[in-house]
Specification:
Elements: E1 2-4, E2 9-12, E3 15-18, E4 21-25, E5 43-45, H1 48-55, E6 58-64, H2 69-78, E7 84-89, H3 98-113, E8 117-121, H4 125-133, H5 151-164, E9 169-172, H6 180-195, E10 201-207, E11 211-215, E12 218-222, H7 226-243, E13 258-261, H8 262-267, E14 270-271, H9 276-288, H10 298-302, E15 305-311, H11 326-340, H12 346-361, E16 371-372, H13 380-385
Parallel strand pairs: 3-15, 4-15, 6-7, 6-9, 7-8, 10-15
Antiparallel strand pairs: 1-4, 1-5, 2-3, 9-13, 10-13, 11-12, 14-16
Bound molecules: guanosine-5'-diphosphate and cobalt (II) ion.
């Protein structure tokens, strides 16, 4: 990939937000020859091998609920073979078991492509038991005892699975994307963002180049939706209140397409519903902004958090048949998490209170936002123990104290450890010498 370096960066405590970067070439060739140097100071060439090295340590999570299987198969087709895929489905199981149909289709796909695909249902009782075992009941619905519905909750559960699967990076792609080529591009861009960062706390967010719409009888390539405009403006306003300089640096407040290093994914607090993506920024500022009353963890004082925003080249086209009603809900959710944050400056708070009230007067009232604690402290051994019966447990790496031979699907050939042959067990002698 050939990509421009960020034109500017804004620093907020330990958080560096880099301005949107344009991609010049999706594939810029193989590894450098030994004495070939970067040819430009402002354009970076990231070799195919470098992207591959990062992607093979990445879990790509596909959250889905009731999507058409054909559409999701296209998404799977776009995810590189060396990534581990986690499909987190919340599709209905009654009266028709849609999930069973999905699982069959995706596992067949996995066999045909020899690709590691983990298929999980969000309401799997074992998953709920795993969360209960580690004391994370906040994600469970008290009425059913199962994991709550919602894309955010699915993403949190998938993050725990990716952790058990020892992934270093985790990326998210929506299941309703019409273009497999766009999905492939996102994954390469996630990796490019990590390649450009020297921190182990990093996030890559995709800024869509365009979202095609049919207007009259032609295609119109829209760049910004109404919600993104409003969310970005608010986040930038918050930054400006602290720095004293107006800014437009944040362009990815609502980026559903994003990836994080596992270190960062485990440290963040999350919020529910449509607010999860804008809240990434807010929580980064809360935890790592170095503001009064916050404590930066020791490893972060030496490091920093890098946020790269990369502009994708493929048009983004997802299933819009679900209607537009949630546009206002997304806007409302973003306003809520900013308004409720202890770091929201007074002036912005007043403005938000006014806007929220106006929406509520128009009877636009949505579910309150829920917050979830970071996952870092959860005991992954106990979490894992609740899931050992699940078919995907075969992908869990062997625990050091158990003498299990590593699954051949999980390790690269050059990493395979050759174990000495186990001595044959002595035949029973029935007491005779
Ligand atoms: P939009 O793209 O913002 O219009 O929202 P979508 O309705 O397309 O949702 C984004 C993604 O989240 C899609 O892949 C959905 O199938 C998925 N999704 C929605 N609700 C849930 C849920 O409760 N659980 C999971 N795991 N995924 C969900
Ligand atoms: Co969608």
């Amino acid at each position: 990939m050939r990509i421009e370096i960020p034109r500017e960066s804004e620093r907020f405590g330990a958080v560096s937000i880099h301005s949107v970067q344009k991609v010049l070439e999706l594939d810029a060739g193989l590894q450098f020859q030994q004495n070939e140097a970067q040819t430009s100071q402002i354009i970076r060439r990231i070799s195919y091998q470098q992207l591959h090295g990062i992607e093979k340590e990445m879990a790509v999570v596909v959250p889905m609920r009731g999507e058409r299987i054909k559409l999701v198969q296209g998404v799977l087709c776009g995810i590189p073979n060396h990534c581990l895929v986690i499909i987190m489905s919340n599709s209905s199981r009654h009266p028709v078991d849609r999930f069973a149909i999905e699982r069959d289709a995706f596992l067949r796909f996995s066999r045909f492509t020899d690709k590691r695909v983990v298929v999980v249902h969000q309401k799997d009782p074992a998953l709920a038991a795993a969360f209960a075992a580690v004391g994370y009941a906040q994600i469970l619905d008290p009425n059913t005892g199962l994991v709550r519905s919602g894309k955010a909750e699915g993403m949190i559960a998938a993050t725990m699975l990716a952790r058990l699967l020892q992934r270093k990076y985790i990326g998210f792609v929506d299941a309703d994307n019409y273009f497999p080529g766009a999905v492939l591009e996102y994954v390469h861009e996630y990796a490019a963002g990590f390649a450009l960062s020297n921190s182990t706390y990093a996030m890559t967010r995709i800024a869509w180049h365009s979202k095609p719409k049919i207007i009259e009888d032609g295609l119109f390539f829209a760049k910004w939706g109404r919600t993104s405009r409003s969310t970005n403006l608010l986040l930038n306003q918050l930054l400006a209140e602290y720095t004293g300089f107006e800014t437009e640096i944040i362009k990815t407040g609502n980026a559903g397409e994003h990836a994080l290093t596992m270190n960062l994914a485990l440290k963040l607090r999350y919020s529910s519903g449509y607010s999860i993506e804008p809240y990434h920024y807010i929580n980064l500022f809360e935890q790592f902004g170095g503001l009064e009353g916050t404590v930066l963890s020791k490893d972060l004082i030496l490091q920093h958090v890098d946020v790269h925003q990369i502009e994708s080249r493929n048009p983004h086209m997802h299933d819009t048949g679900k209607g537009d009603e949630h546009i206002d809900e997304m806007k409302y959710a973003a306003m809520q998490v900013i308004y409720q944050s202890p770091i929201c400056p007074k002036k912005l708070k007043r403005q938000l209170r006014r806007e929220i009230r106006e929406m509520e007067e128009m009877e636009q009232v949505y579910a309150p936002v829920r917050y979830y604690d970071p996952l870092a402290e959860l005991d992954d051994g106990a979490f894992r123990a609740a899931l050992v019966e699940r078919p995907y447990a075969e992908f869990f790496p062997p625990q050091p104290h158990l003498h299990v031979v590593p699954s051949p699907m999980l390790v690269d050939v050059e990493e395979t450890v050759v174990l000495p042959p186990t001595p044959e067990a002595p035949l029973p002698t029935n007491g005779k010498p």
